[in-house]
Amino acid sequence: MVKRRQGKIQNRLLLWYIIGSLVPLIFLSIAVIFYLAPVTSWSGLLDLIEHTLLIPLLASFILILTLAIIIPKEITKPISKLQAAVDKMVMGDKNVIVDIDSNDELAALAEGFNRMTKDIISARAGLQADVKSRTSALLKSNTELQDSKTAMLNILEDVEAEKFKAEEQRAKIEAIITSIADGVIVVDKNADIILVNEQVKKLLQITDKVIGSNICDTIKLYGDDGVQIKMDIGKFLESKKSLEVFDRTLVDKNGSQYLEINLSKYKNIGDKIVGAIIVVRDITRNVEIDKMKSEFVSVASHQLRTPLSAVRWFLEMLLEGDLGKLNDEQIDVLKDALESNSRMISLVNDLLNVSRLESAKIKVEPILLSLNSLLKTTLKEATVLAKEKKIKINIDGVEDIAKIKLDKSLMSQILQNLISNAIKYSSNESDIIVTLKTIGNEVQFSVKDSGYGIPLGEQSRIFEKFFRADNVTRMETEGTGLGLYISKIVMELSGGKIWFESEERKGSTFYFSIPLEGSKPKEGSRSLAQVTSK
Ligand code: ADP
After folding, report:
1. CB of 455 shorter than 6 A to ligand 1
2. Do 395 and 501 reside in the same domain of the chain?
3. Would you list the DSSP string of 448-487?
4. Residue 167 maps to a domain
5. Atom of ligand 1 nearest to the CA of 534
6. Is 78 a pocket residue for ligand 1 (Cβ < 6 Å)?
7. Measured from the CB, is residue 479 less than 6 Å from ligand 1?
C-alpha cells in the first residue's frame, strides 16, 4: 500500500516539474517573440539580445534554476524521510516514527506509515505473546508426553516381568503335571484336550496326537458292568459339583485294569471356570485287594454264622428249661450270653450282607408289600430296645399306603437300621417320631430323634463303610458303622433315595423315599441275610 502511495506522489511531482518548467518557458517565449518582432537583421538581433533580452533571459534562467532546486527539495524531503524510515524498519528498528509537518497527502501517507508501524509493533507483540504461550503449552505437552512415555516404559517393564513370572509358573505347573504319579488330562470348556502327561498316555494307551481332539471321541471308558460311561464335561462344568468321581472304570470292557477317574473344575486367575482336570488313577491293585477282603469276610462270616446260630439255639434251650430248671442267677447269665450272641450274629449278618451287596450277588424280588404292616412289625421288634431306655416312639402322620412292589428283606433291613439307630443314639426318656406318607409320586418315610446328632464336620462321611462319628464312639456305644452303608446300597437297589438332617446335641431325622411304582426286580444268587435285632 505504501508503495502504491509512493508511486502516486512521484507522478504528481513529475507533473509539477513539467508545469514549473513550462510556465517560465512560455513567458520567455512570449518575451522573445515580443522583442524579436521589430528585428530585421543579424546585427540588430544581436544588439537586441545584448541590450534588451540579456536581463530577462538571465532572470528567467535564474528563476528556472531556483524552481528546479527548491521544488524538488521541498517535495522529496518528506519522501526521503519516509524512505529512511522504511530502511530503518527493514534494518530491524521497529519503533520508527515519521514526522512530516504538512497538510498534504505525504503527511497522510506518513500518518498511515506511523499507524502501520504501530500496528506492526502491537501485532508483533501479540504474536510474540502468542508464540510464548504456545511454546510454554508445547513444552508442557512435551513434558507430559515424556512422563507418559516413562510411565509406559515402566508398565511395559512390569508386563514383561509378569510375563516372565507367568511363563515360569506355567513351566513349573507343567513340570509338576508331567512328573505326577497319577495320569492327568486337561480339557477346555468344549472338552477338547489341552494337555496329557506321560502317566495318562501309558494308562490309556494314547499319544500326544490326542491333543486338540474331543475327549469323548478319543477316550472310551466303561463301568464295572461293561456299560459305557458318558463323561459329560459340559454338564459337569455347569453343575455346582466341585468333583465328580467315576470309580472302578475300565478302559477295555473285557479287561481287568481298573481306573478311578476324578473330574474337577479348572479356573483361571479371575476365578472363571475355563475347563476341567481329569485325574486318572490305576486302582487295579486296590480292587483286587477289596475283592479278596470281601471274599474272606464272606467266607469267614458264613463259617461263623453256623456255630453262632447253634450257640443261640443251645442258649434258648437252656433258658426255656429244656435241660432242667435254672435259678435266677443262671437265667441272668444266660440272658447276657444270648444278647452277646445276638450281637455277634447281627455283625456277621452285616458283614455277609456287605460282601453280597458289593459283589452284586444280591437279588431283588419285589412283591406287593404293605409298608404300613412292615413298619408295624419293625416297630414291635424295636420296642424291647426302646423300653430299656424308656424311649417313647410316636407314630405320627402314618398314612395308610396302598401296597407297593418292594423287596421285603431289603425294606425290612432299612427300616430296622434307621429305627434302631434312632433309639441307640438318643438319651434315655426321649421321644422318637416316625412318619410314613405319600408326597407326589413317592412314599416317604422318616424317623426323627432328639438324640446326640451328628457333628457337622462328619456328616459327609456318614454313609461310608465302617464310619462312626466321634461323638458316639466317645460315648462307647456299640456299632459297626455298616448299617447306613448297607442302607444306602439297599436304597439304590430299590430305586429310592436316603438322606438325613442332623444337628449335634439336638437330634437327627433320617429319611428315605421310593417311587410309588416300586422297585425293579434284579437277578442274583443271594437274598440279604436275615436281620436280627441289633
Ligand atoms: P452303627 O450304628 O453300627 O455305628 P451305622 O452305619 O448305622 O452304624 O451308623 C453309622 C454312624 O452314623 C453311627 O456310628 C453314628 O455315628 C451315626 N448315626 C447313625 N444314625 C444316627 C442317629 N440317629 N443319631 C446320631 N448319629 C447317628
Report:
1. no
2. yes
3. EE-SS---GGGGGGTTSTT---HHHHHTT----S-HHHHH
4. no
5. 3
6. no
7. yes
Model confidence pLDDT, tens digit, residues 475-502: 877 888 999 999 999 999 999 999 999 9
The pTM is what? Answer: 0.56
For residue 441, how far is its CA from the centre of ligand 1 (angstroms)? 29
* Residues 335, 437 share a domain: no
In this prediction, residues 442-449 reach a mean pLDDT of 96
Ligand 1 site, residue 347, Cβ cutoff 6 A: no
Q: Which three cell numbers stand for residue 46?
A: 544581436
Distance 468 CA to ligand 1 centre (A): 6
Q: How far is CA 35 from CA 22, 52, 79, 127, 228, in A?
A: 20, 8, 42, 72, 153
Q: Which atom number of ligand 1 is nearest to the Cα of residue 422?
A: 23
Any domain includes 522: yes
**Within a domain: residue 164?**
no
Of 425, 447, 509, the one to substitute when testing ligand 1's pocket (max ligand atoms within 8 A of C-beta) is 425
Domain with 194, as residue range(s), is 181-282
- Which atom of ligand 1 is found nearest the CA of 458? 16
373 and 518 co-located in one domain:
yes
Within-domain flag for 330 = yes
CATH label of the domain that carries residue 434: 3.30.565.10
> Taking the alpha carbons of 439, 444, 449, 454 in that order, is the dihedral positive or negative?
negative
Give dist(CA 120, CA 122) in Å, integer: 6
Report the pLDDT value the prediction gives residue 508, as an integer from 0 to 100: 98
Compute the distance from residue 218 Cα to the ligand 1 centre, in Å.
44
Mean pLDDT of 168-172: 84
Q: Are residues 395 and 409 in the same domain?
A: yes
Pocket flag, ligand 1, residue 419 (CB < 6 Å)? no
Say yes or no: 269 and 296 in one domain: no
E strand or H helix at 437: strand 431-439
- pLDDT tens digits for range 308-366: 999 999 999 999 999 899 999 999 999 999 989 988 998 888 888 888 888 777 889 99
Distance from residue 481's CA to the centre of ligand 1 (Å): 7
Q: Are residues 446 and 493 in the same domain?
A: yes
Q: How far is the CA of 421 from the centre of ligand 1 (A)?
A: 6
Residue 100 sits in the same domain as residue 196: no
283 lines ligand 1 (CB under 6 A): no
DSSP three-state, residue 184: strand
Residue 387 in grid coordinates = 423300653
Last residue of a domain, one of 247, 265, 282: 282
Structural domains counted in the chain: 4
Cα-to-centroid distance, 240 and ligand 1 (Å):
28
Between vectors from CA 463 to CA 341 and to CA 241, what angle results, nearest 5°? 175
Q: Of 326, 359, 392, which residue is a domain's last?
A: 359
Q: Are 140 and 26 in contact (CB under 8 A)?
A: no
CB of 177 sitting under 6 A from ligand 1? no
- Asked if residue 484 has its Cβ within 6 Å of ligand 1, the reply is yes
- Rounded-to-integer distance, Cα 217 and Cα 187, Å: 13
Assign residue 302 the CATH number of its domain.
Answer: 1.10.287
